[in-house]
Amino acid sequence: MTVRIATWNINSVTARLPKLLEWLESAKPDVLCLQELKCSTEAYPAEAIGELGYESAAHGTGRWNGVAVLSKIGLEDVVRDLPGQPGYLAEDAMLPVVEPRAVGATCGPVRVWSVYVPNGREVDHAHYRYKLEWLTALRDAVREDAAGPRPFAVLGDYNIAPTDADVFDVAAFEGLTHVTAPERAAMTALQEIGLQDVVPRPLKYDRPYTYWDYRQLAFPKNRGMRIDLTYANKAFADAVTDTYVDREARKGKGTSDHAPVVVDLDL
After folding, report:
1. 116 is catalytic
2. Which of 157, 166, 228, 246 is catalytic?
3. Which of 7, 8, 59, 153 makes the best surface tag, with the fewest CB within 10 Å?
4. Which residues are listed under the site Transition state stabilizer (predicted)?
């Protein structure tokens, strides 16, 4: 059985819906993990996406976050939020809020989580500490599946470049989030429980970046980062036959600032 699984930070599923539908028809993934829906679960365009044959498990509140799993091969055992997921206490809030940043589902022979890891903002910001706490909760939540025999992967926008080679110029990120030692240690912790980074093969460019800022011609200059990742267990990784970043989906006007990452499996 061949299965195509993809992940894409869509940067507003309602604003990018025509782009998303077009891409689903051309790329034909069996499973797609979406992040940054920027819409509530109720406002999620399930009907339009369903017309292409996809079931959806969406999780959003209508603000800046939100995640979903779309599947043509079944959608079972849906879990919204990580067990033990921490909340973020904003400066103007009385209580921490558990943000919609994770949804898990079993899609045919594969179990996946779609995750949108907190950005972290600045190293000395409360959001950075929240990011590290969230990553610890992620590790704990997926430990059993990571060690199991069923193909399993955590796909999404990790907001971390795992190595210096995953940013266009590491000197440009000195003192900033996304490249700090504690963040990268959290990625190492995922490897220690049995997950591995499935790296897309380079196509036109040597470095398979997945995100480029809208500003300063970052995309044409390929000043990007690889932060949209697939961390998979052995059963999943051993079945991978191909993986690539679909840069074409980043081109033109009205696109997300991220490109989809596609992984093909032979199970």
Report:
1. yes
2. 157
3. 59
4. 159
